[in-house]
């Protein structure tokens, strides 16, 4: 799976460039926790499908972020994925934002 | 000249090796079936995810990722329902209890506290489908999900469905 990672000043942007976040791509997703900074933005703009295996990988990032006092955001999430994230109560820990609203973090 | 009637069918069958790579074959096929039946975009996505979860369970837990064993998937179609049956060779002794005990909500805080990142598949399935049925024994497990066919605004279906539905669809 392709991940494009941008590192800024205390902010990491992870563009998930694969169209599926599932069991096959989960390992690569979970491995990015080493590259997270105080603020990490996950860009789901290219993602068409997420299942529970993918959610599990995202949860590992959430757990790691919590342990280290870091914030995690999701951008460019489809309506269906928002619904799924709400079902599993993920949005409390990885809120959905608009990229333009996170610009102050990126430009800091 | 008499018009040739389009062939009728009411079931589609797919068999895949028990490797997670092939789960995608089934979920993409589910999308094709749902779109042909005129499902809304939202409902197509629901079906795709539910089928993915069921097939993943069959691969991982039913067949223990043994590629020499197939997962069987059947789509049974009637005028008002789609049934998707996923079969594996495992025996799920606690399956019905697991179905009955699926919580209405996930306690994500508890999961995070205890590093419980897995086990959401059945929860998602039950939230996404209209009905489920589990049959499991020494011969294997059949897990069936029902989706009521509620066509989208265009109400167009490309499928000429045989109106004689099998007993299977009488749920």
Q: Strand order within the widest sheet of chain B?
A: 1-2-3-5-4
- Any idea what the CATH architecture of chain B is? 2-Layer Sandwich
Radius of gyration of chain B, in angstroms, nearest whole number:
17 Å
Q: Find the count of extended strands of chain B (DSSP E, 2+ residues).
A: 5
Please state roughly what percent of the residues of chain A sit in beta strands, choosing from under 5%, 5-15%, 15-25%, 25-35%, 35-45% or over 45%: 15-25%
Q: Could you please say which CATH topology of chain A applies here? A: Transcription Regulator spoIIAA
Query: Structural class of the helices, strands and pairings of chain A?
Result: alpha/beta
Detail the poorly predicted runs of chain A.
none
Describe the largest sheet of chain A: 4 strands, mixed
Précis, in short:
The complex is a heterodimer of chains A (108) and B (171). By secondary structure, chain A is α/β, with parallel strands linked by helices. Chain A is built from four helices and six strands; from the N terminus they run βββαββαβαα.
Give the topology, please.
The complex is a heterodimer of chains A (108) and B (171).
Chain A: E1 3-7, E2 11-16, E3 20-21, H1 26-30, E4 39-43, E5 49-50, H2 52-67, E6 71-75, H3 79-87, H4 103-107
Parallel strand pairs in A: 2-4, 3-5, 4-6
Antiparallel strand pairs in A: 1-2
Chain B: E1 11-17, H1 23-36, H2 41-62, E2 70-77, E3 81-88, H3 95-100, H4 108-113, H5 121-128, E4 131-137, E5 140-148
Antiparallel strand pairs in B: 1-2, 2-3, 3-5, 4-5
Helix pairs in contact in B: 1-2, 2-5
